[in-house]
Amino acid sequence: MERVPILKLGDILIVSIQIDLDDQSVLALQEDLADTVVSSGARGVIIDITAVEIVDSFIGRMLSTIAAMTRMLDAETVVVGMRPAVAITLVELGLSLGGVRTALNLEKGVAMLGHVRGAAG
């Protein structure tokens, strides 16, 4: 099973999804991310889905679950790089991704988390 890499940039973790996710890889990602948030003291998580071309309800639920999990661990999550077709599909599936913040690209996601930390700190 291929694992999704988790990169650290200051107090932000960056998860760039470059593989097709199945049940096992999602469970591994959730566990790895939770462990890394706690061990690194990260205050923010960016999930980059630029390479994701097709989204189904499974991916939508995964994003919502990860955002809820990281919030419980005192880290804010931003999903970046969503393609228009992916956004349309999520809406058509009825997945609003409540509680998941989004930004157009990685740079805007980092800036968004900087404002969140600045306001909280």
Can you walk through the features of this model?
It is a single chain. By secondary structure, the protein is α/β, with parallel strands linked by helices. The chain has helices spanning 23-40, 57-72, 84-92, 106-120; strands at 6-9, 12-16, 44-48, 76-80, 101-103. Helix 1 (23-40) packs parallel to helix 2. The longest helix has 18 residues, at 23-40. The N and C termini lie far apart (39 Å). The model has no long low-confidence stretch (mean pLDDT 88).
What's the total count of β strands?
5
**How much of the polypeptide forms β-strand, as a percent range?**
15-25%
Q: State the separation between the terminal residues, measured CA to CA.
A: 39 Å
Tell me the series of helices and strands, N- to C-terminal: EEHEHEHEH
Mean pLDDT: 88
Assembly state: single chain
Cα-atom radius of gyration: 13 Å
Helix content: 40-55%
The major pleated sheet works out as: 5 strands, mixed
User: DSSP helix count?
Assistant: 4
Structural class: alpha/beta
Trace the largest sheet across and list its strands.
1-2-3-4-5
Question: Shape from CA axes?
Answer: globular
Give unreliable regions as ranges: none
